[in-house]
Design goal:
The structure is a single chain. This protein has about 170 residues and is mainly beta. Helices cover about 5% and strands about 65% of the residues. It has one domain: Porin. The strands form 2 sheets. It has an 8-stranded antiparallel β-barrel with strand order 1-2-3-4-5-6-7-10.
């Protein structure tokens, strides 16, 4: 008689915890410019103010040729939602880039455009994995590398691939 009572009872539902709109984390990646690939480290903070819109702050460091970036970005989330465990986004950013070119220091504005994906491996995990690919354009002085004593190679365009983890 008691076993029938327990079989008919439904388990109480646990309420879903809402995802925090505040994200923070870091990225690693590769940067391609001037026919070479360099490493990238990046830290960022993001605030998602609507279901499909977010603003963020980031700083990145490219090495071995030292280049620092500090900037703001806007993300528009498209397609899926976290109920499907992934989201695609488009990112537009504006930053200031600091670098050394031929023993002179420059601090120039830079705009960027990227496509990416936030992937949640486990539905209740407090983090997402982020993958993105994009490009940046320096609006002022271009980046440069000395090829030999007589020639210099310059580029305004930078392409990158990044992966990282963001907590919320």
């Amino acid at each position: 008689m008691a076993s029938g009572f327990f079989l008919e009872m439904e388990a109480p539902e646990t309420p879903e915890q809402p995802i925090s709109p505040f994200y923070f984390g870091g990225h690693i990646g590769g940067v391609y410019y001037l026919k070479g690939v360099e490493a990238l480290l990046e830290g960022n903070v993001q605030y998602r103010f609507l279901e499909k819109h977010a603003f963020g702050l980031y700083t990145s460091f490219v090495f071995p040729d030292t280049q620092w970036d500090v900037g703001l970005d806007y993300r528009f989330y498209m397609f899926n939602s976290f109920s499907n465990l992934s989201e695609d986004f488009l990112k537009v950013g504006f930053a200031f880039s600091y670098f050394d070119k031929l023993n002179e220091n420059y601090f120039v504005p830079k705009i960027s455009l990227a496509y990416g994906k936030d992937l949640k491996l486990i539905s209740k995990a407090p983090f997402v994995l982020r993958f993105s690919i994009g490009g940046s354009y320096l609006l002022g002085e271009p980046l440069a590398k000395k090829i030999n004593a007589y020639s210099l190679q310059e580029s305004h365009m930078v392409l990158y691939v990044k992966t990282g983890i963001l907590f919320f």
